[in-house]
Each structure stands twice: as C-alpha cells, then as structure tokens.
Amino acid sequence: MRQPGGTPRTAGDARRAGGPAAWDRRDRVVRTGETATVANDALDRIFGALADPTRRAILLRLRSGDAGLTELARSFSISLPAVGRHLNVLEAAGLISRARIAQRRPCRLEDGALVVAGDWLDELRGAVQKMPARSGD
C-alpha cells in the first residue's frame, strides 16, 4: 500500500516499486548533538512486532536461513493465515523481507530495523549510565 503522498508504506512496497526500503528514508536516525531521535512510528512498528512471542520465534527461525510461509506454518503448528498475518507485521516493521521466486515467497531477516532499534536503545542506555547513582538503593 502507498501512503497518501505516494511514498511506499512498507519495505516490500518500496521493493516492488524498485526503490529502497521506505522506512529507511522516512524513519532514519537523526543525530542532534549527542541525542539520537527516531521517528516514533518506526519504533512503534519495530517494538510492536517484537512484542509478540510468535513473531520473535519466527525471527529466531529465520536466523538459520530463509523460509517460506508453508515451512514456517509447519515449524510453529499454526495456520497459514495466522503465519501470513505475523509475516505482514514483521515486514511492515522492516524486520523481514519477502522475495518472489516462481511460486515461492521466501522470507529473509533484515537488519535495518534492528539497527534503528539498537541505536535508540544505545542512546537510552547511554543516558541512563550518565545519570548520577541513587543513594539508598
């Protein structure tokens, strides 16, 4: 789906249109001094996708290599439509990509969203480490 301004909404939409992943352009880390700010909608999509244990398990399964919808459904003993919905959420968050090879649509882990989330967490961790130690804790 495209957003009203014509920008692809997901990495898959951008890939089908022949361009780079849309969230890379729209939600990249912007550094201002020592602070990194990331568009909230990107973080919401990433952490929302990671909040579900089945989606985290799918990501761990894809760590060992690409897999299609049917193979993932067999691995998790859940229906094809349920796996498809999980994959749509993961793809919209930029955590996976899906290619089309004849009749197959193998899913592959992508690191861009993980970098965005990791940068945000690193900035937060840095801020916490700079805080003075609490007395009495």
What's the overall geometry?
elongated
* Count of helix runs: 7
Please identify the top-level CATH class: Mainly Alpha
Radius of gyration, Cα only, in angstroms? Answer: 17 Å
The named CATH superfamily? Winged helix-like DNA-binding domain superfamily/Winged helix DNA-binding domain
Write the element-wise H/E pattern from the N-terminal end onward: HHEEHHHHEEH
Average the pLDDT over all residues and give the rounded result.
78
The termini sit apart by: 50 Å
User: From the 3D coordinates, which CATH architecture would you assign?
Assistant: Orthogonal Bundle
Number of domains: 1
Structure characteristics:
137 residues; mainly alpha; Arc Repressor Mutant, subunit A; two-stranded antiparallel ribbon; 53% helix; elongated; ArsR-like_HTH; WH_DNA-bd_sf; HTH_ArsR_DNA-bd_dom; Winged helix-turn-helix transcriptional regulator
Overview of this protein structure:
The protein has 137 residues and is mainly alpha-helical. It has a single domain, classed as Winged helix-like DNA-binding domain superfamily/Winged helix DNA-binding domain (Arc Repressor Mutant, subunit A, Orthogonal Bundle), CATH 1.10.10. The chain is 53% helix and 9% strand. The chain has seven helices and four strands. Strands 1-2 form a two-stranded antiparallel sheet. Helix 3 runs antiparallel to helix 6 (80-92), helix 3 crosses helix 7 and helix 5 packs across helix 6 (80-92). The protein starts with 10 loop residues before the first helix and ends in a 7-residue tail after the last helix. The relative contact order is 0.15. Residues 1-5, 18-29 and 31-38 have low confidence and may be disordered.
